[in-house]
Amino acid sequence: MKALITGASSGIGKEMAIILSEMGCDLVLVARRKRRLEELKKELKTNVEVISMDLSSSYNCMKLYNKLKSEEIDIVINNAGFGVFGEFTETKLDTELDMIDTNIKAVHMLTKLFLTDMRKQNKGYILNIASSASFLPGPLMASYYATKAYVFNLTEAISEELRQNQSKVYIGTFCPGPVDSEFNDVAKVKFGVKAISSKEAAAYAITKMFQRKRIIVPGMLMKLNCVCNHVIPRKLLLRISYHIQSEKEVLNEK
């Protein structure tokens, strides 16, 4: 098997690459930081191609697909993404637009392009990395939460289309809570809730993907959170979400 992983230079993406390589999968690893990818390649046991690319560019997303479309990509993991913390009127517009292009546009394009081929072959796996943020609005991280809601709802809709057509192609979303990764540094925030390790998150996601789980949520606390989101009134959820967000420690810019 061959897997394409975006955002593979650190965190969950890196750990997924290690796990899939140990399972015997050849890999195509994509991220902006080529040096990180080259270092990771040296650790892996299978054939690995590294591609340094900024997926916030639609042109680059199409370029990536055209480069790989003649190969048999069995697994696509759309992991590239980042967050922005702060009140909506105070966060930088350019940063938010870059985030929207990475978190939404790149996921949309790569899912559509590779899924079209997979449907013709009637096989393959697509795992889109969303977040527990997918399930409710997130005051103080409004744009980030909105991007993950898009990923979640898009993937859910596609999953039902595949089911209705009795397709053997799998698509699902991974929706973790806080994960100990470089996400915090990029978003310039430290979470108040205890985070799980990137390795733990990646292992859980890969296992459940191969079990064809549609919505993958690690940890009892996050599972309970999902249940509460369905029973607690929306107005109260917003207040709870704001309180949780406001307790995060804002990191100083380096």
- Please give the CATH class: Alpha Beta
Give the integer mean of the pLDDT values. Answer: 89
End-to-end distance, in Å? 41 Å
Q: Find the count of extended strands (DSSP E, 2+ residues).
A: 11
Kindly identify the CATH topology.
Rossmann fold
Give the strand line-up of the largest sheet.
3-2-1-4-5-6-10
Sheet/helix structural class? alpha/beta
Sketch the topology as an H/E string, one letter per element.
EHEHEHEHEHEEHEEHEHHE
CATH architecture: 3-Layer(aba) Sandwich
What is the makeup of the main sheet? 7 strands, parallel
| Number of contiguous helices | 9
Which percent bin holds the helix content? 40-55%
> How many structural domains does the protein architecture include?
1
3D architecture notes:
With about 250 residues, the protein is an alpha/beta fold. It has one domain (about 1-250): Rossmann fold (3-Layer(aba) Sandwich). The protein has nine helices and eleven strands. The chain has helices at about 10-20, 35-45, 60-70, 95-120, 140-165, 185, 200-210, 220-230, 235-245; strands spanning about 1-5, 25-30, 50, 75-80, 125-130, 170-175, 180, 190, 195, 215, 250. The strands form three sheets. A seven-stranded parallel beta sheet has the order 3-2-1-4-5-6-10, with helices on both faces. Helix 3 runs parallel beside helix 4 (about 95-120) and helix 4 (about 95-120) packs parallel to helix 5 (about 140-165). It is globular and about 50 Å long. The relative contact order is 0.13. The model has no long low-confidence stretch (mean pLDDT about 90).
